[in-house]
Amino acid sequence: MTSTDTLSDPETTRSLWIGTYAGGDGAGVHPLSMDRRLGAPYPDALNASFGTYSSRFDLHYLVDEQDEGALGVHRRTASDWVRLAHVPVDGGAPCHVAMDRTQSCVATANYTSGSVSLFRLDPASGLPIGRPAVHANSGSGPNAERQQSPHAHWVGFGLDNRFLYVADLGTDEVLAFAVDVERGTIGTSRTAFRAAPGSGPRHLLFHARHPQSAYLACELDSTLAALDVQGSDLKFRTSVSTLPVGWRGANIVAHIDANSAGDRLYVSNRGHDSIAVFALNDGGDPTLLQHVASGGASPRAFMLLEEERRMIVVHERDQRVTMLDILPDGTLAPTDFAVHVPGAAYAFVA
């Protein structure tokens, strides 16, 4: 399989790829060109609902989000993809994956088992070594439909690489673990932040420009919380809605990201079907600037392409990938770019 697409510059070999769910008729990861051509899938990366890239090893780590979850390790060559490993995470439905700052370990958040898995990577090959260290959470929340048990939804390492954090939608908390990335070991958990009951923490964001801040997108109550980083703890500072004033429809939050300058932050709304754009001041506090229609139903994930001044948005419900323009002030503008991708879940560049 050869990909013919580039993002903007004919001299670059970077291509846009869309991960898909097999349950939505997805067949792997598809190349998607800017002239709206969907290429043949690479079939050895099923249920790739999230991933991370290692520049140290030139490898892509893509989750295989299924009941008996796994992590796939893939390399893109000049003409094809190669799957180098496919290892069980010892947890159910891994939906997020992250790499530590030294690219020595990789961790997954496993949604249905409410657990986190940590793999040490071989320093020569970048492949996972042995079975992962696993911690399963316990507890529940007040939402009987969504919080009957723990649901780890995001995993990531703090800026100083000393702590591993997990956002648990089911228990309304962010957990912190002391971690030794050289040995691939994980300590006992502690509650770094207790979110509002029923808020459903989904994704957490750290940014180098605001090292004393963290940003928590809560799925179930459609809020963005700004938190103070105090050692391993996260302390509440302020919270803002991701929705317009007066909106009364059903909505759940999905993805969060910020630009490299750290002055614009974006959150996707599923139901309102929009991207909320926030300004971050020098102190890291968010102020709502804009809501823009995402161009489809249920924007699960998005990716910022800052060099191209584009945002790629992946919609799970109507299986559509759209594109928004990033304007000079960091706000967004709709375009007419829209492509149907069966099982669409995630976008990445390779």
Strand order of the largest sheet: 3-4-5-6
Assembly context of the chains: single chain
- How much of the polypeptide forms β-strand, as a percent range? over 45%
CATH fold-level topology: Methylamine Dehydrogenase, Chain H
**Overall pLDDT:** 95
> Helix share of residues?
under 10%
Instruction: State the end-to-end distance.
Output: 14 Å
Radius of gyration from the alpha-carbon trace, in angstroms: 19 Å
Shape: globular
What's the helix count?
Answer: 0
Q: Which residues form runs of ≥5 with pLDDT under 50?
A: 1-6, 8-12
Relevant CATH superfamily: YVTN repeat-like/Quinoprotein amine dehydrogenase
Given helix and strand content, the structural type is mainly beta
CATH architecture tag: 7 Propeller
User: How many structurally independent domains?
Assistant: 1
CATH class descriptor: Mainly Beta
Tell me the series of helices and strands, N- to C-terminal: EEEEEEEEEEEEEEEEEEEEEEEEEEE
Taking the sheet with the most strands, its summary is: 4 strands, antiparallel
Number of strands: 27
